[in-house]
Amino acid sequence: MNTMAEAIDKTTGAMSASELAGGIHSRATVGDFTVADPRMSCRDVDVWYGSKQAIKGVSLDIAQNEVLSMIGPSGCGKSTFLRCLNRMNDTIDGCRVTGSIRLDGQDIYDRSLDPVPLRARVGMVFQKPNPFPKSIYENVAYGPRIHGLTNNRTELDALVESSLRKAGLWEEVKDRLDQPGTGLSGGQQQRLCIARTIAVSPEVILMDEPCSALDPIATAIVEELIDELRANYSIAIVTHSMQQAARVSQRTAYFHLGDLIEVGETNDIFTNPRHKLTEDYITGRFG
Amino acid sequence: MNAWTLTLFLLAVMAAAYHLGRKRAISGAGGIDRIKTLHSLPLYHGLYAALWAGIPALLLLGLWSGFQDQIITALVTASLPPESLDGLSEGRVGLLINDIRNLATGNIVSSTLTPGIQAAADQYGRLQQISSWTKWLLVLTVALGGMGLALSHTEPGMRARNRVERIVKIIMIVFSSIAILTTLGILLSVLFESLRFFHAISPLEFFLGTSWSPQIALRADQVGASGEFGAVPLFTGTLLVSAIAMLVAVPIGLMAAIYLSEYASRGVRAFAKPVIEVLAGIPTVVYGFFAALTVAPLIRELGTSVGLEVASESALAAGLVMGVMIIPFVSSLSDDVINAVPQSMRDGSYALGATQSETIRRVIVPAALPGIVGGILLAVSRAIGETMIVVMAAGLAANLTANPLDSVTTVTVQIVTLLTGDQEFDSAKTLAAFALGLTLFMATLTLNVVALTIVRKYREQYD
Amino acid sequence: MTDPSVNPDTSTPRRAIDVVNASLKRRYAKERRFRLLGATAVGLGLVFVLLLFADIVGKGYTAFQQTYYRLPVTLSADLVDPEGTRDPRTLARADYMTPIRQSLRQLFPEVKDRRERRQLNSIVSVGAPQLIAEAVIANPDLIGTTSDFWILADDDIDMLVKGYIDRNAPESDRRVDDRVIGWIDRLEDEGRVAKRFNTIFFTHGTSREPELAGIAGALMGSFYTLVLALALSFPIGVGAAIYLEEFAPRNRWTDLIEVNINNLAAVPSIVFGLLGLAVFIGFFGVPRSTPLVAALVLTLMTLPTIIISSRAALKSVPPSIREAALGVGASPLQTQFHHVLPLAMPGMLTGTILGMAQALGETAPLLMIGMIAFIVDVPGGFTDPATVLPVQIFLWADSPERGFVERTSAAIMVLLAFLFLMNLAAVLLRRRFERRW
């Protein structure tokens, strides 16, 4: 696989996206989509919405303690792909996923696998901050409570505090934990949602354009937070902003019309894109 | 049928006015080929004339029909020999007038005839005759006058369209104001009669008294001549029946809404939702029949079989059936508010690994709570205002009890009972019905305003 | 908060997922219970609908048939038409009860006792002669002949034949005693008893006798009331909706109107009855018990429904239509009447039909304005005393005779059938003209 992918040089990269979609699927991906010790690994993933194919044969690995960013123009399927990773697509009528997605070697689309504990292991942060209409404390405590992670109030208090601390929100809200989470500013709400996700001790965190609804200052804080979280979690982030991808991620994957066009070290992708489409996107010719 | 014939005549005049106005406009322009010189199309000239012919005349006709009876009655009463009114209460005068009216129209009369009454009846008939002729004459004159006025205005430069549009707009404003007039009418009609009632019975007794037996003796020497108007048993009865209804409707309605909007497949939802909503379209008299003839005997039988004493008209039967009636009300309102909870809330919860029921109980229902509460308040308002079920199934005994197997009576039952028997319009008994009506109106109004405000605020939150 | 050294996160992520997995069974049990609860609620709702309809239909379907006796009746000329004029007025007033009784006497010659004879006579409805009169007026040649007539049975016998009277109950508990049962059995054996389609139910006004009671009067009353209510509420409702939705400035007055309309939609219907009694009857002297006053009250009641749905219909017409019309120089009112209104009309009509359905089923306010009076005649106009179908149901439901139970249920079936048709019309209208912009 590896060699095949590398064999495709810049000339084949000039193929149009539709030709790429023609059938060779993942083999068309430029760059090495595998990693040494993957946390999650996806092979030949197709996603269909009814009769419309949204993802076409994508193969991609996510490593331990890395931030993988997914970029690409609107409608390229990067959010759809992200939602496959913890089976959030299950909630959408008529959505069908084929191929294999493995978490620590176990196929998450296996019939016997239960999405509930899966989602406890693979958390997700959404584009628009979506705190529950509850107090800040209850927002963070919600996950531990439903999963029964703590045995008593003291433990729960400690878990809420540590989660809020890790999300960098503790100092700002420690005096008003009983106030509604919806009363916070946009950036604070998003960090609250991150704290909420951390509180159930996931192994992988998926982030779907987490900063698109935030102002630049709040964005900077969240980006810093993502960088810190890398120490303990694997993170996959979908972003619209190439600068953000460059700032926070170690590896970058470029999607186009449902195809994974190119994947590689973030530095390489931005300084030396090997595929024409990647280059066009990065240099701002479309997107 | 007099008024209907006249209305037909008026319509004919309007049609003629339309035709004449059109023709005049065309000829004013100098023929059908030159109508471009008109400011407005001939159609509008016609409409202008028709409106002028119709509206003032219709207004006059309405006013005349509305007030002729009052004026004639006043005239007849004034002409009665004063000694025949001496010492009569207001109510007795009303009866007397009624007799006169019946006599004039050739119906049976309750009291014995005196020449005075006979004369008054004759005069009544005469006045009615005069009034009727005058009405015809005046209305048709006004119609023709209006038409003439409009036609005399008609000339090519007249802005007929603008004028017609202004009239139509004013008519629409009047139509929209009918809502306010209705509220005002309700308020004034119940308020005035209630005030008269509270002159006779102190509000303290009405709102705090615990004994209700509104029988007022016709003659002063009868026992229990005063009647008792302590409405507390009515209020508790209403609350008891409503509470039973809500105990049935809220859990079933809410759970059904949750199941249909969160769990049910599209097919089940498409079938079950309209079928349950059929319950909302069934007339209340049908529920009343069902409660009185099927549910009440059933409960009574069940009760006796386990050794309980059940009144044949128990609060339970009425409450249960009322609850069934309110189920679709609660479920469709809850369905609306649950669907208004944004998908992002569900996503957030599922992404944390919550199961569907956890998401519903801990996120969706709390998020939708204000809307659900608003819906339940509206349902309560409907329950306490519901009439037919309780009239047919709850009974008349004003018991102060919390036992659902007992017979209770409600505010609405008493309003119906007090107003459907044969009685004078002005007796304390009749007036009591209006006092109850006022209480009912204020209670439901408050509930509605609070509920609608809550629901509106809730909707704005997620819009 | 607590000792910061207690940091559960020092444990490995594995531990968390083990906890999660351990609790899963319990959580799924809860999930199933909750789901079951929801399904039960839906099921209960459906069962209630089924029960209600089954109960009504089960009680009422027998009312569409009525028991008759086929008896040979001799219409002697000197009893029916002594002067031989065959004047319909004479024929209508003639005594037909005597020939019926004579016929019964011939069939049961053994009945001699006066009390027994009276009992025998009572198996025939008091309305039976009237049916013969109608037949004779239609065909005067029957006079002087003997022919078989279908003679209407008394309601007690009707109940007996339909099986509502338990023959095994002690005689004193029954409305029909053993002797009468014997006679009826004999008539049945001779093939003289038959259940025939109950035309009286559809052609007659109400009556104190169940076998003579029909819904024609109530139906006509409902018809006149609805026609008038429609004629009043539709133009007013649509006019108000257009003004409020399209022209009204946003100010206190229009806010007040809005609040009022929403509240009126939720005011108990009986309060409208009080309004009708105090204002229309008490103040304006509108004659009580008439379709006119009923229509006025129902108009006020249904206006909020019509206004609210008409406004929704207007809202669904896209602004581009209005802009296009205004752009070619139509006045705002022309825009409304030529372009917006035709597009919004299906929605408005749907709302109006639903409002009329509500008005058709309404009972409580009409009790207040005298529709409860006992009126036998079928009304012929807007100002004739009348009753309406739901009030008729209420009155019959209150009657003690067993025969009225099935007739009440049957009247309910007729009412529900009309409501069903109206709702069907509304649904079809919506389907047919629904437009997605």
Automatic annotation (TrEMBL), chain A:
A Gene Ontology biological process term: phosphate ion transmembrane transport
Q: Name one GO molecular function term.
A: ATP binding
List the GO terms this entry assigns under cellular component, sorted alphabetically.
membrane
Superkingdom, according to UniProt? Bacteria
Which keywords are on file for this protein? ATP-binding, Nucleotide-binding, Phosphate transport, Transport
Q: Where is the signal peptide?
A: none
Task: Check the record and name the PROSITE patterns matching this protein.
Answer: ABC_TRANSPORTER_1 (PS00211), ABC_TRANSPORTER_2 (PS50893)
Matching InterPro entries = AAA+_ATPase, ABC_transporter-like_ATP-bd, ABC_transporter-like_CS, P-loop_NTPase, PstB-like
UniProt xrefs under NCBIfam families: 3a0107s01c2
Tell me the PANTHER family matching this sequence. ABC TRANSPORTER I FAMILY MEMBER 17
- Spell out the protein name for this chain: Phosphate transport ATP-binding protein PstB
Automatic annotation (TrEMBL), chain B:
Main localisation, per the record? membrane
Give start and end of each ABC transmembrane type-1 domain.
235-451
Write out the entry's keywords from A to Z. Answer: Cell inner membrane, Cell membrane, Membrane, Phosphate transport, Transmembrane, Transmembrane helix, Transport
Record bears the keyword Cell inner membrane? yes
Compartment annotation: Cell inner membrane; Cell membrane
**Residues spanning the membrane:** 41-64, 167-192, 239-263, 275-296, 316-342, 363-384, 431-455
* Superkingdom of origin organism: Bacteria
For this protein, what is any one GO molecular function term?
phosphate transmembrane transporter activity
What GO biological process terms are annotated to this protein in UniProt?
Answer: phosphate ion transport
A GO cellular component term found in this entry reads:
plasma membrane
Membrane topology qualifier: Multi-pass membrane protein
Q: Which Pfam families does the record cross-reference, listed alphabetically?
A: BPD_transp_1, DUF3708
State its role: Part of the binding-protein-dependent transport system for phosphate; probably responsible for the translocation of the substrate across the membrane.
Q: Which PANTHER family match?
A: PHOSPHATE TRANSPORT SYSTEM PERMEASE (PTHR42727:SF1), PHOSPHATE TRANSPORT SYSTEM PERMEASE PROTEIN (PTHR42727)
Q: Which family does it belong to?
A: Belongs to the binding-protein-dependent transport system permease family. CysTW subfamily.
Q: What is this protein called?
A: Phosphate transport system permease protein
UniProtKB/TrEMBL annotation, chain C:
- Give the stretches traversing the membrane: 34-54, 223-244, 264-286, 292-314, 353-376, 410-429
Its membrane topology is listed as: Multi-pass membrane protein
**Entry's Gene Ontology cellular component terms:** plasma membrane
List where in the cell it is found: Cell inner membrane; Cell membrane
Gene3D superfamilies reported in the protein's UniProt record: MetI-like
Kindly indicate whether the keyword Nuclease belongs to this entry.
no
Please provide the record's keywords in A-Z order: Cell membrane, Membrane, Transmembrane, Transmembrane helix, Transport
Q: Name one GO molecular function term.
A: phosphate transmembrane transporter activity
Major localization listed first in the record, in broad terms? membrane
CDD domains in UniProt: TM_PBP2
A Pfam short name:
DUF3333
Q: Which domain of life is it from?
A: Bacteria
* Domain ABC transmembrane type-1 as annotated: residue spans: 219-426
Does the entry feature the keyword Mitochondrion, yes or no? no
Per the UniProt entry, what are the Gene Ontology biological process annotations, in alphabetical order?
phosphate ion transmembrane transport
Q: Which PANTHER family match?
A: PHOSPHATE TRANSPORT SYSTEM PERMEASE PROTEIN PSTA, PHOSPHATE TRANSPORT SYSTEM PERMEASE PROTEIN PSTA-RELATED
Family, as annotated = Belongs to the binding-protein-dependent transport system permease family. CysTW subfamily.
Q: What is this protein called?
A: Phosphate transport system permease protein PstA
